[in-house]
Write a structure and sequence with these properties.
Elements: H1 5-15, E1 18-23, E2 29-32, H2 54-75, H3 82-95, H4 97-101, H5 104-111, H6 118-123, E3 127-128, E4 131-132, H7 134-147
Antiparallel strand pairs: 1-2, 3-4
Helix pairs in contact: 1-3, 1-7, 2-3, 3-7
């Protein structure tokens, strides 16, 4: 499976576009659509990096998303509908495969991907640096809504 347009748009909307490096809410150097590293080198973003063009950013996003799509496919043991897959790729892009792999969210999905309690599991992931961030609350709600759409 590949991420669909709704999932891609959700990621772009929540990450936003930044051509120049900036510090995310927990102080990590970030650029583009929330990139903290570059492919294929895996070099971390630095605050003195040159700006990215939107074309380069879109290409990077497509390349990076392939890794997160593969993570979701590897971890989820059940068949998913497109919108479920999209929501999980967005979640994994934002939080990483390690967090997904250890989550009750994944356990519930692997038991029954249509379990309504899954929406509550998305909402547990609303913190960065130990603080609840309103943007993460909105993102998790949007992912849960997409998952069950």
């Amino acid at each position: 499976m590949k991420i669909g347009q709704k999932g891609l748009q959700l990621i772009k909307d929540f990450e936003g576009w930044y051509s120049k490096p900036y510090l995310d809410p927990v102080g990590i150097a970030t650029i583009g659509y929330g990139f903290t590293y570059y492919l294929p080198s895996r070099r971390r973003v630095a605050m003195d990096d040159i700006p990215l063009t939107r074309t380069a950013g879109d290409r990077m996003l497509a390349d990076i998303l392939t890794h997160y799509e593969n993570d979701v496919l590897r971890l989820v043991q059940r068949s998913l509908r497109q919108q479920q897959f999209d929501a999980l790729v967005s979640f994994t892009y934002n939080l990483g495969a390690t967090n997904l792999s250890k989550s009750t969210l994944l356990k519930r999905i692997n038991q029954d991907p249509d379990d309504k309690r899954i929406a509550d599991e998305f909402m547990k992931w609303d913190k960065a640096g130990g603080r609840v961030l309103p943007g993460l609350v909105r993102r998790r709600a949007a992912e849960a809504k997409l998952y069950f759409s």
